[in-house]
Each structure stands twice: as structure tokens, then as C-alpha cells.
């Protein structure tokens, strides 16, 4: 029975695969029709429908790509040669697939367009290079970004070996890149210096490890001074305020009960029964729960400014608040422990803790600020 089902599904799969090739051909999807026919011939070299589809589809696919190449050659589109590269690559992919199937090789005459592809790549690289030089000559940031991308594409097309693209890319990058100096975060407290350094290092480390844009570089103040780089923008961060609140203590008392507490068992003699029946006896348990809750709230606001180095104009400014609430709860009870729920019992196991030092509060409340800050920086510079 299992073998019959296997043969049924295998036959259905073969029929579906073959008909899908025929459907692709009817819809003018000649490349897909070729691929599907070749795949079918690999598993069954004498498949008649796949043979017929391949004989018809391959010449149509070649004609389709050649017609597109002719149209692109008379176009003024700057991407025309790169589009021609794509067409020749498609033709070569068809060739390669047919070569991998002995049955398919016997059915159609194929050709690989190696020289034509290489010629199209050279012309595409020449065009990208010329466009890159055109934009580089304008000597401004935005056009230099375009120039860099054009030189980069020319180099990629020729596998990294085309004219002086590397030098041109360095020149374009020198014009295009925005160099941002990250000033030390200001906090007006000597006791918080270590925690503030931790916050600062997190920011710098994130910006080093996450490349927001190839046209943006971030530097610490020390790096900028040592290398004497040309700074374009300044990321100025300072805490407007940081407050560790007073310790607040709340004492709560509440009655707790449990109406379903097993207190014992009893035997009952039922009429006609040979043995006594054991019945569980439930009662009510009561207790008083005493809870102490100690709370300290820390909060502050980070002021972020992005300043243009040349005009000293503020390009962007935002204030980002952060808050952290430290809580310590513990308690005890009087009465029957069976009246307590699991969470009540857990409270009675708590202990009175000493609040953490201000440095720990600072680190805790700056975590949400850090997330906001990274979001704003990413939003601004990822599009450069």
C-alpha cells in the first residue's frame, strides 16, 4: 500500500513539474521553461514533453535576450552596459545548465558569450569611471558620494583591477566622508566619574563596532587631537540633571485566608457498604501578612547636540530622559502558614537590603537613555 502511494505522488510530481515548464513557455517565461525542462531530462533523459519544450524554449530565450541587448545598445541610459552584462550572464547561465545535462546537449545548439560579456563589462566599467570623474570634479560631499560609488562599481566589474579606481575612491572618500568627533560626556559629579566613563565607553564601542554608513567616521576627542583630522560635526553630550531620590518606606498589613485547607480525614459508614468510606475534611486558615516595601527612584536627562564644526550651528538637539526604580520588599506573617499563597510566602523569605551606591543607580538609569541615543544617532547617520 505504501509503495502505491509513493508511486502515485511521484507520478503527480513529475506531471506537475512537466506541465509547469509548459506553462512557463506559454507565458513567455522562456528561461524558466529551459531550466525546468533540463531538470526533467536529468531524471528522465527520454522525457518527450521536456524534449519538445527545450527545443522550442531555448531558441526563444536566446532571441529574447539578444533583442533586449540590441535595444539597450541604442539607449542613452547610464546603466545600459551593466544591463547588457546582466543579459549575457543570463545567456551564459542557460548554456551552463544545458552543458550539465547530456540529454539536453544533444537537443539544442548552444553558445557561450564569454567575449561579449567581457566586452560589456569593460564598457560598463568605462562608463562608471567616466561618471565617477564627472561627479568628483564637482568637489562637494554629495557628488563625491556618487563618485565613490561609481568608481567602486567600475572596480567591481573588473574584479578590482581597473585603471586607478583605488586612488580615485580614496580621493572621493576624502571629499565625501563626514567626520564626527564624540566629545566626552559631561556629568557634574566627581563621584560618578567611573560610571560616566562606562557610559561613554559604551557609546564609543558601539559606534566603532557598528558601521552606520561608509561615509561617516566617528572619533574620540583624543583621536581627533592626535591625528589632527578635519572635523565636520561634533556630537556633544551632557547630563542636564541626575537625581537619586530619597528612600521611601511603605508598611502594609493585610488579612489573608484560605477556605480549602485540608485539616484531616474521617470515616463514614454508608448503608449497605461493607467498609467505611474515608472523607477528607476541609477548614479555613487565617493569617495576617506584614510587608515592608522600600523604594528609591533615580532619574536624569541627557542633552544631545549635533553641531556643525564650521558654522557652530546646532544641527540637531534632543533631550532624552531615563528613570530607574530600585525596590526591596520583605515581610513576615502571624497565623496559619496554610493561609498564604505562593507569592505571599515568597515575600516572607525576602530580606532587608541596603540600597546600591549612586554609581549603580547612574548605570541603571542610563541604560534606557543609551538605547534612545543610539537610535537617534543611527537614524541621523545611516542615510549619509
Describe the structure.
By secondary structure, the protein is of the alpha/beta class. The protein has three domains: 17-112; 124-176, no CATH class; 177-384, Double Stranded RNA Binding Domain. Helix content is 51%, strand content 25%. The chain is built from twelve helices and six strands. It has helices at 2-26, 30-43, 48-73, 80-99, 102-105, 114-136, 141-157, 165-176, 193-209, 221-227, 342-348, 358-381, and strands at 178-182, 216-220, 233-244, 248-268, 277-308, 314-335. Strands 1, 2, 3, 4, 5 and 6 form a six-stranded mixed β-sheet that branches. It is flat and about 95 Å long. The relative contact order is 0.08.
What CATH architecture of the largest domain would you give?
2-Layer Sandwich
Instruction: Supply the helix-strand structural class.
Output: alpha/beta
Number of domains: 3
Number of alpha- plus pi-helical segments: 12
Overall pLDDT level: 89
Shape descriptor = flat
Largest sheet: 6 strands, mixed
How are the secondary structure elements laid out?
Blueprint: H1 2-26, H2 30-43, H3 48-73, H4 80-99, H5 102-105, H6 114-136, H7 141-157, H8 165-176, E1 178-182, H9 193-209, E2 216-220, H10 221-227, E3 233-244, E4 248-268, E5 277-308, E6 314-335, H11 342-348, H12 358-381
Parallel strand pairs: 1-2, 1-3
Antiparallel strand pairs: 3-5, 4-5, 5-6
